[in-house]
Amino acid sequence: MVNEQRVGQGGTGPGVISPDGSPIELYLQAEARGEDQLINAAIAPRSSILELGCGTGRITRPLVALGHQVLAVDESADMVAQITETETLCSTIEDLRLDRRFDLVLMMSYLINVPDDEARQRLLDTCAWHVKPDGLVLLQQHDRQSFAQPVVREREHRRLEVSDVEQLPGDRQAATMTHTVGDQSWSQRILVQNLSEAQLVGALRASGLELMDYLTPDRGWIRARPA
Ligand SMILES: C[S@@+](CC[C@H](N)C(=O)[O-])C[C@H]1O[C@@H](n2cnc3c(N)ncnc32)[C@H](O)[C@@H]1O
């Protein structure tokens, strides 16, 4: 199934592919690239964390190892099945309404850039529902520069090709990302809605959240709290 409102719009390659097109085998081989340390520096020790769209636990595992209590949520049962180190739940983010609140609600991987305003609002409503009154919401947003033009990046034995780049009306971008590791290759078509700060503030406010600041100079990491 491909849900038209997902950031990922379908993927191909070996192994199981999640509904948004994310390849499980690729994510299983991937490691954190400093995101865990960035998140850890923004929260108190032993925080309770609701991680939305956790995938195979690439960031979950390091956060648990750092002493945090993580509930990892993903709509793909195959993804969450890979996580044995902490509590997990298979659910769409939009439909999640737990009777629990968390010090941190984490929604990374550009899910906020879903190209549908209503879908984005539902994601943010879930973030707002689950954050404690004095808690934080951390969101990771897409960097338009990464889809500015076709590019190939190589690091150790991994290769990432960004191709078929399209600049679309309404500040949307689309590109095909092809990851190659050894002799295995996965392609995923990605469609994103870039957000101006005014759009971001408006979307947060509509869910009862307010923008605090950005964790990184490129504004890729957004810190918000209950308004
Ligand atoms: C690109 S992967 C990234 C996984 C993880 N955040 C990471 O950085 O390694 C995105 C994940 O979000 C999940 N996902 C996307 N949209 C979702 C939704 N609306 N509800 C629940 N899970 C979703 C996908 O199944 C996938 O596992």
TrEMBL record:
Its keywords, alphabetically, are: Methyltransferase, S-adenosyl-L-methionine, Transferase
CDD domains of this UniProt entry?
A: AdoMet_MTases (cd02440)
InterPro entries tied to this protein: Methyltransf_25, SAM-dependent_MTases_sf
What Gene3D superfamilies does the annotation carry? Vaccinia Virus protein VP39
Stretches the record annotates as Disordered: 1-20
This protein's record includes keyword S-adenosyl-L-methionine: yes
> Which Pfam families does the UniProt entry name for this protein?
Methyltransf_25
List residues of the Methyltransferase domain. 49-135
Write down what this protein is called: Methyltransferase domain-containing protein
